[in-house]
Amino acid sequence: MSTSSTDALSPLDGRYAGKLAAVRQIFSEAGLMRERVRVECAWMLALAAGPAAARLAKMPRAARERLVKLSAHPEGTDVAAIKRIEERTNHDVKAVEIWLRHELETRGAAAAELEWLHFACTSEDINNLAYALMLKTARATLLVPQLRALGDLLDSLAQEHAAAPMLSRTHGQSASPTTVGKELAVVAARLESQRAAIERVAILGKMNGAVGNFNAHAAALPQVDWQRFSREFVESLGLASNALTTQIEPHDWIAEYCHALMRANTVLIDLARDLWSYISLGYFKQRAVSGEVGSSTMPHKVNPIDFENAEGNLGMANALLGFFAEKLPLSRLQRDLSDSTVLRNLGVAIGHSVLAYTSLAAGLGKIELDPARLSADLDHAWEVLGEAVQTVMRSHGIADAYDRLKSFTRGRSIDRAAMREFISSLDLPQAEKDRLLALEPNTYVGLAPVLARRFRNVTQ
Predict the structure, then answer these.
(1) Is 387 within 8 Å of 401 (Cβ atoms)?
(2) Which of helix, strand or coil describes residue 248?
(3) What is the enclosing helix (H) or strand (E) of 273?
(4) Which residues pair with residue 240 across a beta bridge?
(5) CA geometry: angle at 44 spanning 43 and 46, to 5°?
(6) Is residue 7 part of a domain?
(7) Quick check: 267 and 357 in contact, CB under 8 A?
(8) Is 218 found in the same domain as 189?
(9) Inter-residue contact 177 to 444 (CB < 8 Å)
């Protein structure tokens, strides 16, 4: 029964469905079925090239070609047919096996040859590899490219605004000036570090039978080095082999994957909130999009909805990712099924993450710096030069420098004239006085422009 987008239970398959086709291709029920088919076919082909070579030497060419094609491109999987079989079997992996048996049988495979399909496998042998392949694909085609694109966009903005002075606001209060570019470079550097951490996570898989001991394998073909054969098979799928498991691959690597993605998402939550605040302060303006409505009652509004949408979706993603990381490594004794329904929701967390990345990219593409607003804020914060003045005083051995500036500046509105009068009264060499008198809030940015540009030099 088809459901319209307005009837969908999840907004990922309703309101936002059009933005998440790539996620759905990987993590939908159909996507899981396709990866199961890939693993089943690849396993039979591996057996045909190894332990079962003599038994499968005469397998019809059409059947072998079907295995090869589905192992490389499982898009040809008839998911609807598998689901019809599952209605009868009430077992999804067995339904895949039955469908494949039919596919090979109609292409001439003999009954004895069909017995090598799903040979010595428990369902978890197929499932753990299927999920590993799904997460591997998501990392390579969605997460890493989109995080890298966001990092590049941030770096581009950092270089563009490397020297644009901005009042810092530690604890929400005026603080030593920085530059817009340097603050964006900080986020770009953090994101780069977390993206690299995601890429470093080893994606594991296992193919070792009902409780991880190769019991059936050794009973049927004791002469085969099953540990080596299993390792080579898992590695042929582009995964790392986990040699020591129970019935299930313990999912520790999935927890690591989730935690790494959470950290990247947390950096982006921080970014979304800061940009929201900078827009609120007027430091950035948002380009209005023709036809869009900001408020149902206030026509003038251009709301920072992209950053708000990103923050909400990143929070949703991290809530799920945190649960996955805590839940999935736990399994009673050698196996329980409480992980099964949880694993089916991996794509939901990925979907919320991808949706957030899309919103952030859209938001970053709409903002424009307002130099006049930045300059006005700085010009009303001459008190921030107190740090520079008291530090120069201390370097010349003037006693109680900090306390003198504290008494002069704290809780007071200081303008240019008051600051210049204070500096002129100091017992400092004239050259030092002249240097301080020339200082203004919009030039008191330290090495911020250098630091903003340094990030690009370090990462390239």
Answers:
(1) no
(2) coil
(3) helix 252-281
(4) 204
(5) 65
(6) no
(7) no
(8) yes
(9) yes
Distance CA 142, CA 153 (A): 16
Are residues 114 and 158 located together in one domain of the fold?
no
Distance between start and end Cα atoms, the chain: 51
Sign of CA dihedral 300, 304, 309, 315: negative
- The answer to whether the beta carbons of residues 132 and 346 sit under 8 Å apart is no
The three-point CA angle 249-31-146 to 5° equals 90
User: What is the per-residue pLDDT for 297?
Assistant: 47
Q: Rounded to whole angstroms, how far apart are CA atoms 234 and 128? A: 11
Q: Which two tokens stand for residue 187?
A: 């986020």
Q: CA 98, CA 118: separation in Å to the nearest integer?
A: 10
CA 117/CA 212 separation, integer angstroms: 19
Does 55 reside within a domain?
yes
Q: 376 in a domain, yes or no? A: no
Residue ranges in the chain whose pLDDT is less than 50: 1, 293, 295-301
Q: What is residue 6's predicted lDDT score, i.e. its pLDDT?
A: 82
Per-residue pLDDT tens over the stretch 289-301? 655 545 444 444 4
385: closest CA among 430, 433, 436, 427?
436
pTM metric for this prediction: 0.92
340 is catalytic: no
| Closest CA relative to residue 152, chosen from 116, 188, 184 | 188
| Token code pair at residue 243 | 């040699």
Which tokens is 287 given? Answer: 């380009």
Instruction: Characterise 312 by phi-psi region: left (phi > 0), alpha (psi -120 to 50), beta (else).
Output: alpha
| Number of folded domains that form the chain | 3
Catalytic residue among 295, 338, 407, 424, which? 295
Please list the residues that pair with 120 across neighbouring strands: none
Coil/strand/helix, residue 282: coil
Considering the candidates 4, 171, 300, 425, report the single residue annotated as catalytic: 171
Range of the domain at 70: 19-119
- Our answer to whether residue 217 is catalytic in this structure is no
Helix (H, G, I), strand (E, B) or coil at 179: strand
Please report the pLDDT score of residue 448 as a whole number. Answer: 96
90: its two tokens: 């009430």
Amino acid at 183: E
The alpha carbons of the chain give a radius of gyration, in whole angstroms, of: 30
In this prediction, residue 402 carries a pLDDT of: 83
Any alpha helices (H) in 282-370, and if so which ranges? 305-327, 338-343, 346-364
